[in-house]
Amino acid sequence: MKSLAPADRYRLLVNTVTPRPIAWVVSRNADGLLNAAPYSFFNVLGSEPPLCVLGIGQRAEGDPKDTARNIVESGEFTVNLVGEHDTRIMVDTAAEAPRDVSEIDVLGITTRPASLVSTPLIASAPAALECRLWKPIDTGGNFTIILGEILALHIGDEFLSGPDDRPRVDTEAMGLVGRAFGAGGYIRNKDTFEEARVGWPVPDRG
Fold first, then answer.
1. Which of 23, 37, 43, 79 has the smallest set of CB atoms within 10 Å of its CB?
2. pTM metric for this prediction
């Protein structure tokens, strides 16, 4: 890694560590302007407290991206998981728009109010997280790491079954997409298989 330029490290990592879930992040700046942008350096970390993590790179000129700046300033954001039907418009929000432009407004993305934060949710998302900034981490390089506490989880009713206190999630029905390899590679979260966990000692597979 030390012998490689940052751009070459990035290229190798994103083509190796796949698939990656996509956080379609909505944030708000100090003037109330909404920003939407996708990030695949994303995952959830634990459940007590329930945290999510975002890795957000800098703009081409070396300044923080709007998402990172907005989250640090406002202290909140929403993460919207991406259904296949939203892939094209999600990719369009990755364009580096001027700071005074809202992708939400320009692209006509429909939002709905969140329950615990002022930043809205993307209405078409099969599932979404309402988050409060838990800790920002300056890596000293070209990325900002955002740790967010998950305050609320939204899942469409059509993807839930069973008792209210222990619902089952039909993950496959959500039709989520993730990031794969290549400049424009995506993957459908449908081609799954199962291998049951076992206790110790592991059976001899001989």
1. 43
2. 0.94
